[in-house]
Amino acid sequence: MLKIEKLNKSYGANKALTDVDLNVSEGVVFGLLGPNGAGKTTLIRIINQIIDGDSGKVYIGGELLAPKHIGLIGYLPEERGLYKKMKVWDQMFYFARLKGLSPQEAKMKIKYWLEKLEMETWKDKKIEDLSKGMAQKVQFISTIIHNPPLLILDEPFSGFDPVNAEIIKNEILELKAKGTTVILSTHRMESVELLCDQVAMINRSKKILDGTIKKLKSTYRPEVYSVTLDHLRRDLPAEWISKEDEGSYNFTLPLSGKKPNDLLNELMQYGQVSKFQELIPSMEEIFIHQVKSTENG
């Protein structure tokens, strides 16, 4: 759906993007990660043709990015753009018409989404009279109302309580199931874990990480196990133990080139193994590690 080759962008002497390559498959949720100031917003603005890159190429559906592709994209910016004096229905109708829907299509779509997200009673309210979460729903509907094949969501859960965040999460998954490609830019790593098939991380203008969630967790696994032993028959090596609690010992043990079954057999010589679990890093841990590694480098 989206391919980026050697994309560069500078603002004066400041590099925003340096030779960034990305390949976003069709029908996936793609996480675009990175700390503030990393270059994510610049990349998103180039895809949306708000600004131009200095060099490099962007392809959508195999075609070089052009003005005709604007209608294929739904963009939810982090800084929301609703007209506060407009009513909810008028706001949605305005955006639907901007996206090329006929008046009849726009009315049908608005009615559908207001019912789906249980907002019918709010259609005549002004935007300024809505809670932040309700206004976010209006913005979300306005973003997806034309059924774009490519959806770019920048911090889509900002302002939502847990219940409404769950509703939007389910809507994103439903859109993906229908074939929509979603680029999700967020600092909420739990959302990345739940939603994303692939991720890429940018820091200091450069891509520093790229791959599926499964692949990245496998690549950055520390090969450490958390073990609980009961009914010890012999003393454990002192360097293994990190916690003792009423006869149970918790410790982490590096693989040291051994296979898990070898470790388990060795541990069973010391006592009864009631827990044997590899510590797989979360995306948040990978994120922090990679950002710090880049900064220290």
TrEMBL record:
Annotated PROSITE patterns: ABC_TRANSPORTER_1, ABC_TRANSPORTER_2
Pfam families found in the cross-reference section: ABC_tran, DrrA1-3_C
Residues covered by the ABC transporter domain: 2-229
Coiled-coil stretches noted in the UniProt entry, renumbered to this chain: none
Presence of keyword Transport: yes
Signal peptide: none
UniProt keyword annotations, A-Z: ATP-binding, Nodulation, Nucleotide-binding, Transport
Keyword Transport: yes
PANTHER family named in the record: ABC TRANSPORTER ATP-BINDING PROTEIN, ABC TRANSPORTER ATP-BINDING PROTEIN NATA
Family (UniProt): Belongs to the ABC transporter superfamily.
Protein name: ABC transporter ATP-binding protein
Species of provenance: Algoriphagus aquimarinus
Origin organism lineage: Bacteria, Pseudomonadati, Bacteroidota, Cytophagia, Cytophagales
